[in-house]
Structure formats: structure tokens, C-alpha cells
Amino acid sequence: MLVLLIAAAAFVGAAISWNMATVAVLRRLGINLSFWLPFRLYRRQPPEVLNALRGRTINAYVAVSGLLLFACPLFAGLSAYDYVVRRYLQHSPYYMKYVLASIAWLLLLVIVGVWVSLGDWQKGAEKGIGIAMLAILVLKVSTDLTGSLMAAVFVVAAAAFCSFVYFAVRRIRGGFSGQQYPARREMQVQQDFVSERFVPSENATAEKVAKVQQLMALRPSLDSSSDEQCGDERE
Q1: pTM exceeding the 0.70 threshold for the entire prediction
Q2: What's the CA gap between 138 and 60, in Å, rounded?
């Protein structure tokens, strides 16, 4: 257990160290980021990377935020974690399957990083790597403690429990705030802005004739009103 705690600490330290080195390099390139950015693991308010890259393209933002500040630090943390576990707990060298597993992790992190950065660009808000770090640590530690099958069961159960708690908290907060959402069966059909209901006629010619008669009936009143207006203007 102590080795896993050391491996988890190595994971967090490697990820934060990578981001600090990345910030230092980007500052030399003219992208002014704060050195406190690697420690804002959950939500960055205001969005620092977006503000620092203002005026640049979305490709630059995805490269910096999605790859350099998301995928690469998580991969560095995973590498540090696996090194500690294999050297001091499993006492196993690196085989080809470990290399392939590392490549698969890198591809997955790149995909997730691009997806997250695109979402941040559209929303104008930024999230850190804290949730991803926590999810990876839970998965790795549970796998090393109980095996792959038990870890999968644990992760699924934990995800279901967290989802239940999340929606329950939202429901409770909505009840305290007084915001009520009516059930679908209680919702009435909204009326159209036209008060007169349209009833299609089977005889299109008869319908046209009726409309013409209505217009002709309204014409004398319109003519009289126009004559009165002309008389007022003459006076």
C-alpha cells in the first residue's frame, strides 16, 4: 500500500512538474501564462490559456491546452506511476506489452485532450486536469490492488454511485430553490397565436369565393374611412 501511495505521489508530481516546465517554455515564446496555472487543477477562473492565446487560431489553443497542458502531463504522470509500481512492487522489467499499453494510453489522452480543449474553446471556460488525474489514479490503484476484473466492477459501481449522488443533489437543490419542473402529462398544449382555428375546406373554389366576399364586405367601410381622412386633410 505504501508503494501505491508513493506511485500516486509520483504521478501528481510528474504531471505538475511537466506543466510548470511547459509554462516556462511558453513564457519564453511570448505566451504569458501564470506559474500558478499547474496548481489550478479543476477550474481556471478566468480562463488563462484562452486569454493568453487571444487573437490566435483554435489550432494553437488545442495544441497548448489539449496536448501540452492535458495529454502530455497525464502521460508523464502515468509513466512515473508505472515506473514506481513495476520497480518496487511488481519487480518486472518493461516488455513489449507495456510499451503498447503506454502508446494506447497516449493516444487515448490525446483524443480526450483535443475533445476537452474544443469544448473549452466553444464555452469560453477552462477546466484543469484534476478530474482526469483523479479518474486515472482510481483506475490504476484499483487495478493494482484487486486485478483488472474487480477494478472494472469497482469503477462501474463508483460511476453509478457518483451519478446517483450528482442527480440527487441537483434535485434537492432545485427543491430548496423553489424551481419546479412540471411533469410532461401536466403540461398543456400551447395555443397558437392565431385565435381563429383553421378548418380546411373540401372545396377550394368555395373557400376562395368566401374570402372574396369577405373582402368586398369590408371594402365600403375602408372607402368611407379613407374619404373621412381625405376630408380632414382638406379642412
Answers
A1: no
A2: 31
User: Domain span at residue 42?
Assistant: 2-148
Q: Is residue 71 part of a domain?
A: yes
Is the Cα torsion angle 182, 188, 192, 193 positive or negative in sign?
negative
103 and 94 Cβ atoms separated by less than 8 Å:
no
Count of structural domains within the chain: 1
Q: Is the peptide bond before 73 cis (omega within 30 degrees of 0)?
A: no
Residue 138 is assigned to a structural domain of this protein: yes
Q: HSE, CB side, 13 Å, CA atoms: give it for residue 175.
A: 6
Confidence bin at 228 (pLDDT 50/70/90):
low
Residue 180 lies in a domain: no
Assigned domain for 184 exists: no
What are the two backbone dihedrals, phi and then psi, of residue 126, each rounded to the nearest 5 degrees? -125, 145
Residues 144, 150, 152, 157, CA torsion sign:
negative
Contacts of 154 (CB under 8 A, 6+ apart): 142, 146
Select from 146, 142, 18 the least CA-distant residue to 80.
Answer: 18
Longest dimension (CA), the chain: 110
pLDDT at 13 over 80: yes
Characterise 197 by phi-psi region: left (phi > 0), alpha (psi -120 to 50), beta (else).
beta
Res. 188: pLDDT tops 90: no
| pLDDT band of 197, cuts 50, 70, 90 | very low
